[in-house]
Amino acid sequence: MKKLIVYDLDGTLAESKASLDTEMSALLHDLLGIVKAAVISGGDWPQFEKQVLSNLPHDQRLVNLSILPTCGTKFYQYTEDWKKIYSEDFTADEKEKIISSLKKATGVAGFQGRKSLGRGD
């Protein structure tokens, strides 16, 4: 028997950026009564709260669910409440170096990009 089942959120458990539907919520809840599961996505914690957790019963089965936001660079587990186990965040210097390098490379390539709405730098 499998010990852990890992799912991508968008396009697997739910339509992209949509909440789990009633059937999927029930299936995932039933699964958590049998085996541990994890859900990974590129979105951050608030996306998981809205799309997944708000649609699952708030009961002891949540101890079998792990949440992996931002492509697994963060890890949350449930005991009596949700707790962040780790978060691999860039330092301010790392972030600035990455942004500066991307701007320089796109400038050299002659690429004229447009800024994404709602995401910040």
* Beta-strand proportion: 15-25%
**How many helices?**
4
Principal-axis shape equals: elongated
Number of strands: 5
| Succession of helices and strands | EHEHEHEEH
Q: Compute the separation of the termini in Å.
A: 44 Å
Walk me through this protein's architecture.
It is a single chain. By secondary structure, the protein is of the alpha/beta class. It has helices at about 20-30, 45-50, 70, 90-110; strands spanning about 5-10, 35-40, 65-70, 75-80, 80-85. Strands 1-2-3-4-5 form a five-stranded mixed sheet. The model has no long low-confidence stretch (mean pLDDT about 90).
Layout of secondary structure:
Blueprint: E1 4-8, H1 22-32, E2 36-40, H2 45-51, E3 65-68, H3 69-72, E4 74-78, E5 82-87, H4 92-109
Parallel strand pairs: 1-2, 2-3
Antiparallel strand pairs: 3-4, 4-5
Question: Characteristics of this structure?
Answer:
121 residues; single chain; alpha/beta
Short description:
This protein has 121 residues and is α/β, with parallel strands linked by helices. It has helices at 22-32, 45-51, 69-72, 92-109, and strands at residues 4-8, 36-40, 65-68, 74-78, 82-87.
